[in-house]
């Protein structure tokens, strides 16, 4: 089996999806495929994306020159409904990373019971070098290039790292102008006044805090006597931190791309969020609380939230973690070699895998899509109630499966997702 796995990985490295993030997704999938006993001849069809698009996006720069940026969109699975996934604008974006994120989105949607396959998109660009006008031009050009491949019942875009409500509004407007009518349901994560849903901006972070609270209840941890550390203070990390703060927890450390802050007495999260919203980062909030960001993951705490990028917890970091719960708010923050270490520490550390922990965002994106299709909008309390209901159901299934099969929470969650996708593909045949 090991020799076969190595041979399969060698074959995948020869595809356009080669890269460390895609290899990580492939490794995770093979662990699940081995656990479920999936034959080798079925694995490529479950793992490899259905469709991948690469486009050139030329724009006029403010100085009169022309710049061309490379954009991607990967649609992993079209068997279970339209694909769904975010769009990332970052200098690290490549086709392998985008494919891995689309694959994880498929397992996530299946786990929480949404009628979607996974997708992801992005542009390789350094946003710090773009003006607002240039960003709008690039956003509109990217959507224009994607029009033949996306649609409300084909592929529905959403925000991700480097994109936001405004970018989604530009996407929607560009698509709508080509259709000759307003098509709100082509993207989610839009401004509320442009067809977005109440609670979408906060949904992922709120979901992280809610599922973490479920784990605290399971372990008998009193939130008012516990601490949290949040690595990554963007949209997801900041709202997760706010959720913990509202529970009465002390958020003792946070970090972003500019540095880290640490206060054992607990940080003032509402004030820090206001500062980050106004300035774009946590830099300048306090010089007295400055901390080494490289040490933030191994601080002693009850809840550790990696909410930044992929592959930040490797085997070495995993061996030195001093938390009771890992709440994976980012996609793929834990490497496969770290999973081996954490599997040995299952009795010490409760892992909430990313495909469950951060799924609140896609759940509420689904609600937004449904509301747009129906032209009937809900109150925020209804959005939150339905989000938590879905997360609770998925959490219970994961915990029950992990206990019954004596497996890790990641294996349990992914097994549920992969089983659903496999059953759907087998029932429909080879075409979709």
From TrEMBL:
Residues 197-429 form the Glutamate/phenylalanine/leucine/valine/L-tryptophan dehydrogenase C-terminal domain. One of its GO terms (molecular function) is nucleotide binding. PROSITE patterns: GLFV_DEHYDROGENASE. Pfam families: ELFV_dehydrog, ELFV_dehydrog_N. InterPro entries: Aminoacid_DH-like_N_sf, Glu/Leu/Phe/Val/Trp_DH, Glu/Leu/Phe/Val/Trp_DH_C, Glu/Leu/Phe/Val/Trp_DH_dimer, Glu/Leu/Phe/Val_DH_AS, Glu_DH, NAD(P)-bd_dom_sf, NAD_bind_Glu_DH. GO terms for biological process: L-glutamate catabolic process. Substrate binds at residues 84, 108, 365. NAD(+) binds at residues 204, 235. Belongs to the Glu/Leu/Phe/Val dehydrogenases family. This is Glutamate dehydrogenase. It comes from Bradyrhizobium oligotrophicum S58. The lineage of its organism: Bacteria, Pseudomonadati, Pseudomonadota, Alphaproteobacteria, Hyphomicrobiales.
């Amino acid at each position: 089996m090991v020799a076969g796995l190595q041979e399969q990985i060698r074959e995948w490295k020869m595809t356009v999806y080669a890269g460390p993030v895609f290899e990580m997704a492939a490794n995770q999938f093979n662990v699940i495929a081995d656990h479920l006993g999936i034959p080798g001849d079925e694995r490529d069809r479950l793992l490899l994306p259905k469709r991948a698009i690469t486009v050139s996006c030329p724009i006029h720069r403010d100085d009169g020159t022309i710049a061309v940026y490379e954009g991607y969109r990967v649609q992993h699975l079209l068997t279970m409904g339209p694909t769904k996934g975010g769009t990332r604008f970052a200098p690290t974006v490549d086709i392998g990373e985008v494919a891995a994120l689309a694959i994880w989105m498929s397992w996530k949607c299946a786990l929480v019971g949404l009628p979607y396959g996974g997708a992801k998109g992005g542009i390789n660009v350094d946003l710090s070098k773009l003006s607002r006008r240039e960003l709008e031009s690039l956003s509109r050009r990217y959507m224009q290039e994607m029009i033949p491949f996306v649609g409300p019942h084909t592929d529905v875009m959403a925000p991700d790292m480097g994109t936001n409500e405004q970018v989604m509004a530009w996407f929607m407007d560009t698509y709508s102008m080509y259709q000759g009518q307003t098509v709100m349901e082509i993207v989610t994560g839009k401004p509320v006044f442009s067809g977005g849903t109440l609670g979408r901006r906060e949904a992922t972070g709120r979901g992280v805090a809610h599922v973490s609270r479920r784990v605290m209840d399971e372990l008998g941890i009193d939130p008012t006597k516990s601490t949290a550390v949040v690595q990554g203070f963007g949209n997801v990390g900041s709202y997760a931190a706010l959720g913990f703060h509202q529970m009465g927890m002390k958020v003792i450390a946070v970090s972003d791309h500019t540095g880290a802050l640490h206060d054992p007495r607990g940080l003032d999260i509402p004030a820090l969020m206001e500062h980050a919203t106004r300035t774009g980062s946590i830099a300048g909030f306090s010089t007295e609380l400055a901390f080494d960001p490289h040490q933030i993951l191994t601080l002693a705490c009850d809840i550790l939230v990696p909410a930044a990028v992929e592959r930040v917890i490797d085997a070495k970091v995993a061996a030195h973690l001093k938390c009771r719960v890992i709440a994976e708010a980012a996609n793929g923050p834990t490497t496969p070699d770290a999973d081996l270490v954490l599997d040995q520490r299952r009795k010490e550390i409760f892992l909430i895998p990313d495909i469950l922990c951060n799924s609140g965002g896609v759940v509420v994106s689904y609600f937004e899509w449904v509301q747009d299709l129906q032209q009937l909008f809900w109150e925020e309390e209804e959005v939150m109630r339905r989000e938590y209901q879905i997360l609770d159901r998925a959490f219970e299934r994961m915990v029950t499966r992990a206990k019954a099969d004596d497996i890790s929470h990641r294996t349990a969650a992914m097994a549920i997702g992969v089983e659903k996708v496999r059953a759907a593909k087998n029932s429909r045949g080879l075409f979709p």
